[in-house]
Design goal:
This protein is of the alpha/beta class. It is built from eleven helices and 14 strands.
């Protein structure tokens, strides 16, 4: 394939990562209720399992967004208007959705520099294997946290940028955090750069619940993998068979919530922390929120964080929106 170079940027060394994981596990398992950060889902195994989730018929999000992107791929180059562009994807996944957008720009005779940013090196390698080579396409993988990766790209290139934050990733932040994230993204970009953001819309609770409790059990494996990570990296002795996945919609928050539940009263020892944690029967560990949006929520976020809305693209069922925004800054 056509690869100008691959940037492998590790924003933390192995020991520092282990220390941060230990701190987060200690803090989370001492909290009431217990919780663990969702970012620890995405080690190499977690990234692989998540790709299985996205292909499952119960998980409508990926297939619905794919349909939207396939429909609009040739419109985006017209809206943005650039002869050369840096397409930067935050949390790149397997690259199938990115490929659609890239193809639209290539079909418009635009030179594309693709910078996928992901904390999983294995996810980056999976993506590179899925991308279709083209003489006007260069791929530069960045293994880093999002904003470390964005700084790396800005140091490499001064081209017009289109940042992709697809799927329902923005929904992992609460109503305050998402404004902070988007404002930080705004600060990382130049005037007239663009972002394309995926928003999962509020809908029938049965559809939501099925998506986060898929019938093949992939979501269960995905969530329990975080306990396996603690066992492998911190010397934990979680008995995975004594925990179960639980996903439920909270209508007050407007969010799906993911938990693992201890199915009995038990003690779990984590060697790296030299600490034993007590679990009551059916005590939860909170893992993730996935907030859902209305069209009004999306317009509010855009206005509050320094962007101008260019277009909203939705599907026939109105399940999902990909929203194109432009960075606005005073000269």
């Amino acid at each position: 394939m056509y690869l100008a170079k691959t940037i492998i940027q590790k924003n933390v060394e192995g020991n520092s990562h282990k220390e941060q994981l230990a701190i987060d596990v200690l803090t989370g398992l001492c909290a009431m209720p217990k919780n663990l950060p969702a970012k620890y889902f995405y080690d190499d195994t977690g990234s692989e399992v998540f790709q299985q989730i996205t292909k499952h018929e119960d998980y409508y999000l990926t297939s619905t967004e794919f349909q939207i992107l396939n429909r609009i791929k040739d419109q985006l180059p017209e809206e943005i208007g650039a002869q050369e562009i840096d397409i930067i994807e935050l949390g790149a996944g397997d690259g199938h959705k990115s490929q659609l957008i890239i193809d639209g720009f290539l079909n418009a005779n635009c030179k594309v520099n693709f910078y996928p940013i992901d904390i999983s090196e294995k996810a980056m390698l999976m993506l590179s294997e899925n991308m279709t080579p083209h003489p006007n396409l260069t791929i530069n993988g960045v293994v880093a946290e999002y904003f470390d990766g964005l700084r790396t790209v800005r140091n490499q290139s001064k081209n017009r940028q289109l940042v992709l934050f697809l799927g329902s990733n923005i929904g992992n932040f609460d109503r305050v955090q998402n404004q902070g994230f988007l404002r930080r993204l705004w600060m990382s970009l130049n005037a007239s750069d663009n972002v394309l953001l995926g928003f999962d819309l509020k809908k029938d609770v049965g559809v939501l619940t099925a998506a986060y409790n898929d019938s093949s059990g992939h979501t269960r494996e995905f969530n329990l993998n975080i306990l396996r990570r603690i066992n492998a990296e911190l010397g934990g002795n979680f008995n995975i068979d004594k925990f179960k996945h639980f996903g439920v919609y909270n209508p007050v928050l407007g969010a799906m919530e993911s938990y693992v539940l201890s199915t009995e009263e038990q003690e779990v020892y984590v060697a790296e922390l030299q600490r034993t944690f007590h679990f009551e029967s059916y005590e939860p560990i909170h893992l993730e929120y996935s907030f859902k949006f209305t069209q009004g929520d999306i317009e509010f976020l855009c206005q509050q964080t320094g962007f101008e809305m260019i277009e909203q693209y939705s599907d026939e069922k109105n399940y999902f929106v990909d929203s194109l925004w432009k960075v606005v800054k005073e000269k």
